[in-house]
Specification:
Elements lengths: L1 E7 L2 E4 L5 E3 L5 E6 L10 E8 L2 E8 L4 E3 L8 E8 L3 E2 L3 E6 L14 H16 L5
Length: 133
């Protein structure tokens, strides 16, 4: 999946359709820069992941304005900023990170054997019915 961040006046902002991320997915980040960044050779993304009260960070080099983000697992907030050396940096863009359906703890529904027996009997009735007009 692709997400986009624009960098304007040293502020990183999520593009409107990219404001929410879902855990369990990989994202290819595209960063769109204003002219201030044109002359800067090496640009890096700093990603901050909030996982249960702890914040983890990673610095990832950009290649033609893109990079693959680390897998989002048990994360509820993602912040993404950009820097180049110690001369130019941004305030981070913030993304809510929603749990994936597989992350939500729930008891698996298993009907009891009587319900299954009734369903199989009804299915047998329906498939053995003679449909003559």
């Amino acid at each position: 999946m692709d997400i986009y961040v624009t960098v304007r006046h040293r502020r990183a902002l999520p593009v409107p359709h990219s404001q929410f991320l879902v855990c369990g997915n990989e994202y290819l980040l595209h960063v769109l820069f204003d002219a201030e960044w044109d002359a800067l050779p090496d640009k890096y993304v700093r990603i901050l992941l909030r996982r249960g009260g702890r914040t983890l960070s990673a610095d990832i080099p950009l290649n033609n304005g893109c990079c693959l983000l680390p897998a989002l697992l048990n994360t509820d907030l993602v912040q993404i900023g950009v820097f180049s050396g110690s001369l130019c940096t941004t305030a981070p863009a913030r993304f809510a990170c929603l749990p994936a359906v597989r992350d939500i703890a729930a008891e698996l529904y298993r009907p009891d054997s009587d319900v299954l027996r009734l369903m199989l009997a009804r299915l047998a009735e329906l498939t053995n019915t003679d449909h003559h007009l």
